[in-house]
Sequence to fold (83 residues):
Amino acid sequence: MKKVLIIAVALVLAMSAGAFAADVEGKVQSVDTSERVIILDNGTKLWIAEGLTMDKLKEGSNVKASFEERDGKNVVIILEVSE
Fold:
């Protein structure tokens, strides 16, 4: 019974986390490392989650990001950066 409950809870958490995630692609227009924010050329403002590196982010970089809304902010949880 305990094993079934653990699996059920894991499934609910996985489904609820994925329900709010979204993907975006674009070119970085600006980077603010102190606030951990980037703005894409389409105006999308993204906050980079703690634990993700911002070392490769610079103006003009192409990015693919998965984000979720937290407290009204688009918080990036997965980030790919290319030149």
Summary: The mean pLDDT is 84. The radius of gyration is 16 Å. The first strand starts at residue 21 and ends at 32. Residues 22-82 form a domain with the OB fold (Dihydrolipoamide Acetyltransferase, E2P) fold (CATH 2.40.50.320).
